[in-house]
Amino acid sequence: MRHATLIALSLVAATGCISDEAEDGENDVGLSDGKADGAMLTDCEKAAIVSYINDGVTAAALQAAGVHSRAAKNLTSIRDGNDRRFGTADDKPYASIEAIDRVAYVGRQAFAQLQAATAERCSMPPADPYAEARDVTKALVRFPTGAVATEYTYPEGGNFDLGGTEFWQRWTGGHSPTFDFSEGTDAGRLCMQAAAIRFETIMMDPPAELVKLDAETNWSGSFFNWNDDYSNPTASGDASGSRLWAWKTHLIKWISQTKKDGGCYLPTRDMVIRIANACLTTARAANGEIEGCQVR
């Protein structure tokens, strides 16, 4: 036992310390460059790491955040320049994530630790793809890059309801119509769902004119979701605006239009007020029937 203890003490003397922290070798690769030992970082994570170090974090703070000691000390000593003090004239901030990767003992382990230490900077909740649809005054809305609508959620409308999913694809060979949401294009489905969200938002506080239309005519408060889709490059023409149309007395078509560039025209609150007034006028001359009234 004494002999084993002496061997262990000799190892401590030779290495200086025993540590269980994850470290890198002097020339380990940190960033992924096609080698197995590189880390994959998003653009946000790269920028967050560069900013984190350049903002003056100390070696002690880096270690407290989980970065191994050799990387922490080397990163700050190079950044701080010859005087080893941050915030002085000889500071050398890192120009890029690649410059950080060139620092000795900053490899895969250090980057994983830096990634964890800065995780909150890149953990913002995803943007609401339908944020613009919730602005009931906005006639033309757009969606964030990468937004998709794979399933349709029917809206809540209180005393009013929006049924169906009706696509008219305005190109040769397109569905005209289809009532199957899954057969819509990516852009068409986004616009259709946005139209449902716009409907729900307006009906949270329905215009007095619409309430009057429901009370004083033969209409029963029903709408139907319709999308004119021009998103195919071969479509005839392009979208020009949304429409509300009393197809029959019992049903008003809630018509959105999808542009070639993916933009989406939606009915606005003002349009709802105008269709209500137009249909009230029609009903007075037609014994409560509203078929045919429309606004754009």
Describe the structure concisely for a colleague.
With 296 residues, the protein is α/β, with parallel strands linked by helices.
Describe this structure in words.
The chain is of the alpha/beta class and 296 residues long. The chain folds into two domains: 103 residues, no CATH class; 164 residues. The chain has nine helices and seven strands, in the order ααααααββααββββαβ. Strands 1, 2, 3, 4, 5, 6 and 7 form a seven-stranded mixed β-sheet that branches. The longest helix has 18 residues. The N terminus is likely disordered.
Give the SSE map.
Layout: H1 2-15, H2 43-54, H3 59-64, H4 69-80, H5 97-101, H6 108-117, E1 140-141, E2 161-169, H7 186-203, H8 208-216, E3 222-229, E4 243-248, E5 251-258, E6 264-265, H9 269-285, E7 294-295
Parallel strand pairs: 2-3, 3-5
Antiparallel strand pairs: 1-6, 4-5, 4-7, 5-6
Helix pairs in contact: 8-9
What class do helices, strands and sheet pairing give?
alpha/beta
State the order of secondary-structure elements, H for helix, E for strand: HHHHHHEEHHEEEEHE
Specify the oligomeric state. single chain
Major sheet attributes: 7 strands, mixed
What fraction, in percent, of the residue positions are helical? 25-40%
Number of domains in the coordinates? 2
Give the averaged pLDDT, no decimals.
Answer: 88
Strand content: 5-15%
What general outline do the C-alpha atoms trace?
elongated
